[in-house]
Amino acid sequence: MDISKAYDSVSSRSLRKGMERIKLPEQWINLVLDISYNRFNRVIVNNDLTEKYKVEDGIDQGEVWSPILWRIFYDPLLCKLDDMREQAGYEIKSEFKENITKDKVTIHSMIINAIAFMDDMTLISRSHDQIMDMLEICHSFYRLNDIKANPKKYEIIRINNVEKRDMIIEGQKIEKINSKNGNRFLGIFFTYNNNRAVHIKKMKDMIEGFVKIMNRKIITDKQVCKLWNTNMIPALEYQLQGVVITENEAKQLMAPINTLIKHKCKMPSSLPNCVLYDKDIYGVKDIYSLQFESLSKNIMYMANGNEIVRSIFKIQMEQLQQEAWTPLCFAEKVSQVKFSTKRFVGDALIVLDSKKFHLCDHENYNDLFRNHRIRGGYILIEEVLEEEF
Fold it and tell me: Which ranges carry the Reverse transcriptase domain (predicted)?
């Protein structure tokens, strides 16, 4: 969902209501509003200042407390959406049978219907009607606060959806549906069919663009390495939050930058790449090593993060366990699973396992079956089936 000039749309009346809603002291509320609105602004136009005008609405972009004021202002909408999760939301769940000799089945579930970062919001639902109900709630909030939404910039990702009805909001039809190039959210592209090629192509284009610019510049090999490590590596690491790549794919992505640096330092193309990656020589950061660092941090955060993230991680681990047809924890079985499980967590664990990074906490307890292994039985199904299965 797209909002025009979000910070400028914050009205003093709604901001006051938002602060009163969370029981902030009246003196503090008056202080915030007095600082924010009892003042005048001037604008620089053609190297000159305009006449001053009184500030009546909006909060300043870049002001230290602007993000928290925006959250206070926007929180009622998010809470309203959260209240209707049961009626309009997407449920991720797993059924875990702790003992195959007993009928007890534990169901772990999590329902999500909205995620937001500042003014960027994504609605998630099971059906067309449910998403329209949530959109009506959002737009009623926007109308109440004179916020201008731009439905023309809305994007839809339909996953396994046979419904072909058009989505029309305030008389405008949403055109961007299941874009082949992916749908962008906070700088990362997602596809309806989880197509890894879109992510890899995005990173490839970024690297080729960087190499093309560096080829035209009269700079040294050390300068190229510095720009790569400080400019490109953070951008690539950000993109790696949406995809897990193999070692061969990482080598293909690194090939252009390796060639560029060898050319800049007048070295033969046959020079081993490890010379470039050695921290005591050039210290070029390798994408695959970068991914390993990123995945290890992300997986540990998922396993030990806040309640929502931790619950989703647990559900995904149980789903992976069921898909692998094993009573063992998926993290114990991961070395025997093929890459491209179509799940970020599954592929991440496979890559980490290839570098001897294991994620399993059963060694911390005397009970090996605690929380993740299935009790009962003595023979694994793969011991019965032939190798081709």
Answer: 1-190
